[in-house]
Design a protein that fits this description.
Blueprint: H1 2-18, E1 26-27, E2 30-31, E3 34-35, E4 39-41, E5 56-62, E6 68-73, E7 78-81, E8 86-89, E9 93-97, E10 103-107, E11 117-122, E12 128-132, E13 137-141, E14 147-152, H2 174-183, E15 211-216, E16 222-226, E17 232-236, E18 242-246, E19 259-264, E20 270-274, E21 279-283, E22 289-293, E23 299-304, E24 312-316, E25 328-331, E26 337-341, E27 343-344, E28 350-351, E29 354-358, E30 364-369, E31 374-380, E32 386-387
Parallel strand pairs: 27-28
Antiparallel strand pairs: 1-2, 3-32, 4-31, 5-6, 6-9, 7-8, 9-10, 11-12, 12-13, 13-14, 15-16, 16-17, 17-18, 19-20, 20-21, 21-22, 23-24, 24-25, 25-26, 29-30, 30-31
């Protein structure tokens, strides 16, 4: 008994040293003794005009004036018959509110790229960036609401005229074998067959497959998480010129399973909400792997606050039938949890699948919720007791 107790205490001491002697160390993917952050939710935060309603709210952001931008899955998708194709648009809407929550205007009414909203972000120059999942587009507006740049291209709908069925396979035999050899597929003197594409890797350039988020570094380089179909992160220069991409579907470092959110800190490090892998991956500015945080459940979104002391916020979001999760986390950039707050539910101070966080003010964050069709402004207080 004495020997067993001695061994147990020795292991505990080793663990304490290994984790820096802190009771808040990560252990088995969880952090022990997480402080609870008390908070309030501002009542009647957004004031909509009569007859105007929000649908799901995947996107919320604020600018330097405190204005709030909401990218909502609302409105009616319109299908237009073109010369040879059917074009769809208008399934989402972008609204602006002032710092008191009063409605100001709608931006991009009926625009071609608004189909299925995913996020809205505001850059340091107050330009408005929108990521539309279904349109496969990242769109940049100036503060007046004029389009400055697009990255990606909306998929063309199915041709309805001059449709040509696919050609039948080549007949077997010498001719077929020769053709295969020329293409490198027959094992002959032609080139070797190209390796099959890596699932989720995508291709260089702007060929998104349901992108999810966008961010920038101090030099204006643009980072995009892409996304549902691809599982990669892409870097462009400030003019939208492709520079580099990394990642494909998987569970290892620099592999992703639905990279669902993205944020960049003052040093240019990129934080990825690797939702399907239940982790946050941290990349350097050249998209090299730095770290991963396994202590926040299934992160749907990430946000890095500005200022001299930056914080990382994330949400362990949930679907409507999962009420065991739904809490949010405030963290140091090194992954240490400062505290947690909130829970799943439909009341004020509860969350229904938080999809985006705006943390321009780390003590007054704004969150957009899918299943509750709303945005909440949360006023955070100093952490108090711990929860295990």
């Amino acid at each position: 008994m004495k020997r067993t107790l001695t061994l147990t205490l020795s292991i505990a001491a080793l663990l304490l040293v290994a984790f820096g002697g802190s009771t808040s160390a990560q252990f088995g993917g969880a952090q022990l003794a997480v402080p609870e952050i008390p908070f309030d939710s501002v009542p009647n935060f957004l004031k909509l005009p009569d007859g105007l309603y929000l649908g799901e709210v995947p996107g919320v952001a604020t600018n330097s004036k405190g204005h709030v931008f909401v990218y909502s899955r609302t409105g009616t998708t319109t299908a237009t018959l073109g010369g040879s194709r059917v074009f769809t648009h208008g399934g989402s809407r972008l609204f602006e509110f002032d710092d008191k929550g009063t409605y100001v205007r709608e931006i991009g009414v009926g625009i071609y790229g608004f189909v299925f909203a995913h996020v809205v972000r505001i850059d340091p120059q107050d330009n408005i960036w929108v990521v539309d999942e279904a349109a496969n587009l990242v769109m940049k507006f100036d503060p007046n609401g004029r389009i400055l740049m697009t990255i990606g291209r909306k998929p063309e709908s199915i041709n309805i005229r001059n449709f040509e069925p696919p050609a039948p396979p080549a007949p077997a035999g010498r001719a077929g074998g020769a053709a295969a050899g020329r293409e490198g597929g027959g094992g002959g003197r032609g080139q070797q067959a190209a390796a099959p594409p890596v699932i989720g890797a995508g291709v260089e350039g702007e060929s998104f497959n349901r992108p999810t988020d966008v961010g920038w570094d101090a030099q204006g380089n643009v980072f995009v998480s892409d996304g549902y179909g691809n599982s990669r992160v892409v870097k462009y220069d400030k003019n939208g010129v492709f520079l580099k991409m990394v990642g494909h579907r998987g569970t290892g470092p620099l592999e992703f399973n639905t990279p669902h959110g993205l944020a960049v800190d003052a040093q240019g490090n990129v934080y990825i909400a690797d939702r399907g892998n239940n982790r946050i991956q941290v990349l350097d500015n050249n998209l090299g792997f730095k770290a991963q945080y396994l202590n926040v459940g299934s992160p749907w979104t990430v946000c890095v606050s500005p200022g001299a002391h930056q914080y990382l916020f994330t949400s362990n979001s949930n679907y409507p039938n999962d009420f065991n999760n739904g809490e949010m986390y405030k963290m140091e950039l090194d992954g240490k949890i400062v505290g947690r707050f909130g829970e799943a539910g439909k009341l004020m101070k509860q969350f229904g699948s938080v999809h985006e966080i705006d943390c321009r003010d780390p003590n007054g964050i704004v969150v957009g919720e899918l299943t509750n069709w709303r945005a909440q402004k949360l006023l955070l207080k100093a952490p108090t007791s711990s929860t295990n």
